[in-house]
Amino acid sequence: MNKHTLITAVAALAWFTGFGILSPNRTLAAPHADEHGADEAQPGAHGDEIVRLDAATLKEFGIETGQAGPGQLRTEVQVPGEVRLNESGVAHIVPRFPGVVTAVHRKLGDTVKAGEVLATIESNDSLVTYELKSLVDGTVINRHIALGEVLETGSEPFVVADLGSVWVDFSVYQKDIGLIREGQAVTITAPHGLGSATATISYLGPTMSESTRTALARVVLPNADRKWLPGLFVTGRVVVDETTYPVVIPQSAVQVFEERESVFVQTKDGFVPRPVKLGRRDSAAVEVIEGLERGEIFAATGAFHLKATLLKGSLGDGHNH
To answer: Under CATH, what is the fold of the domain 55-73+244-314?
Structure first.
């Protein structure tokens, strides 16, 4: 091969590589032709970006679809709160007469029944023994008593509480007092993933605290599994209004792609990112004003994985999905 032939071969190789013919990582998407034979781009699509994943991969990534349509957005008021003992189920066990403790039958944390003997006392005056009994079914949450101790009538050797339900007391700020009413639903969230629950406001205080300038809103929360510990700080979200909009989607469906808020719409070829114009939103959902029509199928969950797949493909060369 002479010098002229070698130069010609190198130039041809460069020409083919530049058009992607010899590029192993590039796949050209098939064009969409209309009935007149002209190419027709996918409406709203970013070029030819298409993510093609089989059913097994969609399931693995947790990608689920939804159908665009009307939905409700909530106006919520966020309020700080604290879990407290339900005082309706708290009993303070006190001695009837001064005396000496001759027996202690229950310890801190024990579960007791109403009428169960907690301790035995010998009266100082009559030297007759009598029993301290629980007044409710519950758990011993405080114990200040020891064998041989002299108890006075003002002492409080046991506190027993029914922990099957608790109070959650919320502080309502002045600006929100007109929005909060008895019977409204509250979503209660504990920090660090400790749990969440839904309850209704059962009591709204008639006065404001002089020290905090807040009003009291209270819910009674079932606590059969004992996960709502008195003293735990929580956050409440009170739904004060609900409005229906023509197209509402989960916030998890929205991804920022190529510096635009987008939704991955499912077509016959795969998922295509489409720019959308968003409107009102709440903590879980958002209104779509433009870019997504009612009835269209979109990635409701797992859209981040679709975005990551597109970005990974674009780093290789072209949009290979």
So the answer is: 2.40.420
Segments of the chain assigned to CATH 2.40.30.170: 77-85+164-242
Give this prediction's pTM: 0.66
What class has domain 77-85+164-242?
Answer: mainly beta
Which fold would CATH assign to domain 90-161? Answer: OB fold (Dihydrolipoamide Acetyltransferase, E2P) (2.40.50)
Residue 19 reports pLDDT greater than 80: no
pLDDT reported for residue 149: 97
Q: How far is CA 138 from CA 104, 108, 132, 156, 226, in A?
A: 17, 12, 15, 17, 12
The span from the CA of 134 to the CA of 154, in Å, is: 17
Higher pLDDT, 41 or 220: 220
Ramachandran sector of residue 148 (left: φ over 0; alpha: ψ -120 to 50; beta: rest)? left
Q: What are the φ and ψ backbone dihedral angles of 92, each rounded to 5 degrees?
A: -100, 115
Q: What average pLDDT does the structure give for the chain?
A: 86
Contact of 320 with 24, CB cutoff 8 Å: no
